[in-house]
Amino acid sequence: MNILKYVVSDKKIPIIFSKEIIHCDVMSDAITAGFLILKFDMNHKKFIVKCFGESSSLNIKKGDEDENIIENYLNNNFYNIS
Questions:
Q1: pLDDT value, residue 81
Q2: Residue 36's pLDDT is what?
Q3: DSSP track, 41-77
Q4: pLDDT at residue 48, as a whole number
Q5: Of all helices (H) and strands (E), which one includes residue 26?
Q6: What are phi and psi of 72, to 5 degrees?
Q7: pLDDT of residue 46
Q8: Mean pLDDT in runs of 10 for the chain (82 residues)?
Q9: Contacts for 22-31: CB closer than 8 Å, 24+ residues apart
Q10: Which of 24, 31, 33, 77 sees the fewest Cβ atoms within 10 Å?
């Protein structure tokens, strides 16, 4: 299992990065942040994301919509079935 970190901007654009990097070094004004597990479902041909936790460096938690925001972003921008 590969655990990554993420932040989400006020424009609801996610940035995913290594857990070795501190959240505040990536974005100081994120609206949500936390950790994620990223999987690719080969049967449905889409990314599946599980978000959890919080950023202690930014003092913010994961948002209720983070999984949907990140899944939609990845599936619409990095995987296209056409």
A1: 55
A2: 98
A3: ETTTTEEEEEEE-EETTTTEE--TTHHHHHHHHHHHH
A4: 95
A5: helix 23-26
A6: -60, -45
A7: 92
A8: 94 97 97 97 93 98 97 87 53
A9: 22/57, 23/55, 23/57, 23/58, 24/55, 24/57, 24/58, 25/57, 28/58, 30/55, 30/58, 30/60, 31/60, 31/63
A10: 77
